Structures are given as C-alpha cells and as structure tokens.
C-alpha cells in the first residue's frame, strides 16, 4: 500500500512510523509512507498556505490551491472514479466534522492500494477541499485536535497493521475489539460462527498466575478449549455491557450469546 500525507509540519511524523508493526511493514515493503510539506505547493513566493476566513471571525484557514496542487501531482484517479469505488484509492481529509473513523473503515481502507491523507490546521481547511477533492472526511473522535497529523497517524497505524503479512499472527487481528468477523479459518480455533461480533475484546492474562493477590481465572489454565472459548465470549459480553453497551445493539449475537447475557444480567434479554 502507498500512503501519502500532506501537512505543514512534516517533522511531526519523525517517530510515529519508525517503530513496531509500521516500521516492519515499511521495511518489508508492505507499506510505503511519504510525508509531503504543504508549503512546497504554495502558489506564491512567500509560501503562503493559509488566509483569513471569509465572513470574518477568528483564526486562519488552509487555502485550497496548495492542497489541490499537491494531490494533482499524485497518481490518483478522478474524484468521481474514487467515489464510485472504481479505483482502489482514497483521498481523505482529516476533520472534526468528518464521519467517525472506526475499525470497519480500517478494514475497508486496508483493502485499497493507495491512501492520501490531508492534515488540516488552524480553523480548518477551505471547504472546497471536502466538496471537490477529498472522497472522505474522517474524524478520529468527538473532540477537537489542533491538527490532522495525529488523526493521520491513527489511521495509518490502524490500517497498516491489517495489511496481509504485517503482523506475525494474522488470526490475532480477527479476534479484536470492534471486529466483526466471519468464522475462524479451520485450524485456528473452534468453528464458532462469530469471534467477537463487534464486541470489545475479552481480557488477556499472562504469567505470573498470581500477582499481588489477583489470580488468573482457573479456566484459562484448564486446557479445556471449549470452556476457554465460552469464558472468553462471556467476558467479552460482560466487558462490552459494562463499558460500551451501545456496541451490543449492533452486535451479531447468537443463541449462546443471549444465554450468556441472561446469565450476566440475571434476566432474560
Ligand atoms: N474549526 C474546526 C472545527 O471546529 O471542526 C476545528 C479545526 S482543528 C483546530 C484543526 C485541524 O485539526 C482540522 O482541520 C483537522 O484536520 C484536525 N482535527 C481536529 N479534530 C479532529 C478530529 N477529531 N479528527 C480528525 N482531525 C481532526
């Protein structure tokens, strides 16, 4: 996958892409990440990339011309081709006003060949970038950051780890929080119809078996795979109910899940 990022602070990205899975994915040639300085695409000799807002008000707004000029240097198809899903590319504007980025979108973006990420600053980016250039406007959460760089780093991290070959054990990315998934491939685990069905992940433990009086649940050392699977599913349901009950509304729950939920809540659901 090719990832291009434009920002007025290219130095910001010294670091986030140099460790762990992203680093390995880059070294292995699975992801190529290029960071571009927006000022290099300014149209005047002062390298101006922002201007005062029409209508008055506080702050500055990133101008459209340098951003359009930059994207036009990249080998990306026309916006309507991208919007129609006819090319495996996406041009994404990071914005607090965008649709909320989620794991499902990470999975969808990980199937593309090229991502182009536009980082805003100041009061934001001239709306014509959203209207006529980007095919998605994404927000990483309901809060306002001072710039799009952290959002871009979040998307790159989430997507890169899903690229085939990026993590040693690919099954681990199928059993995660928020991940709706098809049955486990044979040989990886029980033939459950759904691993986490968009729930939060189950709790994980490692050695020591007893730490400051907190013992690892005995079932995990029992060697009984079906009991372990059931305990994990129940724990995932319990944790989701406690921390993110909203996810339960959309989760694909099976009969066993409903039975486990009844046990948890002590009533029929
Ligand atoms: N005036 C804007 C608003 O209220 O929606 C906020 C602008 S913010 C200070 C500057 C830039 O940070 C935005 O253009 C965007 O690129 C980025 N940004 C801020 N919050 C974000 C979020 N939740 N997700 C992604 N990017 C965000």
Main β sheet profile: 5 strands, parallel
N-C termini distance:
44 Å
Mean pLDDT: 91
CATH third-level topology of the largest domain:
Alpha/beta knot
Number of strand segments: 9
Class by helix and strand content?
alpha/beta
Structure description:
There is one protein chain. This protein is α/β, with parallel strands linked by helices and 269 residues long. The protein folds into 2 domains: 171 residues, Alpha/beta knot; 70 residues, Orthogonal Bundle (Trp Operon Repressor, Chain A), CATH 1.10.1270.20. The chain is 30% helix and 15% strand. The strands form 3 sheets. Strands 2-1-6-5-7 form a 5-stranded parallel β-sheet, sandwiched between helices. The chain has a two-stranded antiparallel sheet with strand order 3-4. α1 links the parallel β1 and β2. α7 crosses α9. The longest helix has 19 residues. It is elongated. About 6% of the residues have low confidence. It binds S-adenosylmethionine. S-adenosylmethionine (SAM) binds next to β5.
List keywords for this structure.
Alpha/beta knot, Trp Operon Repressor, Chain A, 269 residues, five-stranded parallel sheet, alpha/beta, binds S-adenosylmethionine, two-stranded antiparallel sheet, 9 helices, single chain
What is the topological layout?
Layout: E1 2-7, H1 20-27, E2 32-37, E3 50-51, E4 61-62, H2 64-71, H3 79-83, E5 89-100, H4 103-109, E6 114-118, H5 127-132, E7 136-139, H6 149-160, E8 210-211, E9 214-215, H7 225-243, H8 245-250, H9 255-265
Parallel strand pairs: 1-2, 1-6, 5-6, 5-7
Antiparallel strand pairs: 3-4, 8-9
Helix pairs in contact: 7-9
The structure holds S-adenosylmethionine (SAM).
The site of S-adenosylmethionine has 20 residues, from β5.
């Amino acid at each position: 996958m090719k990832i291009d990022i434009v920002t007025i602070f290219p130095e910001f990205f010294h670091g986030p892409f140099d460790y762990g899975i992203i680093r390995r994915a880059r070294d292995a040639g699975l992801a190529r990440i290029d960071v571009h300085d927006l000022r290099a695409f300014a149209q005047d000799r002062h390298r101006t990339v922002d201007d005062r807002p029409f209508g008055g008000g506080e702050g500055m707004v990133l101008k459209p011309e340098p951003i359009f000029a930059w994207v036009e240097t990249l080998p990306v198809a026309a916006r309507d081709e991208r919007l129609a899903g006819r090319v495996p590319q996406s041009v994404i504007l990071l914005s607090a006003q965008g649709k909320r980025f989620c794991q499902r979108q990470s999975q969808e973006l990980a199937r593309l060949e090229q991502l182009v990420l536009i980082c805003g600053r100041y009061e934001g980016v001239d709306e014509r970038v959203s209207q006529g250039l980007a095919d998605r406007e994404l927000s990483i959460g309901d809060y306002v950051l001072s710039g799009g760089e952290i959002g871009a780093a979040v998307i790159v991290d989430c997507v890169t780890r899903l690229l085939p070959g990026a993590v040693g054990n690919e099954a681990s990315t199928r059993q995660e929080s928020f991940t709706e998934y098809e049955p486990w491939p044979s040989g990886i685990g029980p033939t459950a119809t759904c691993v986490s069905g968009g729930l939060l992940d189950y709790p994980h433990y490692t050695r020591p078996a007893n730490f400051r009086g907190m013992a690892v649940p005995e079932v995990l050392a029992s060697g009984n795979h079906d009991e372990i699977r059931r305990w994990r599913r129940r724990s995932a349901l319990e944790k989701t109910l406690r921390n993110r009950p909203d996810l339960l509304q959309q989760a694909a729950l099976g009969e066993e899940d409903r039975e486990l939920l009844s046990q948890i809540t002590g009533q029929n659901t």
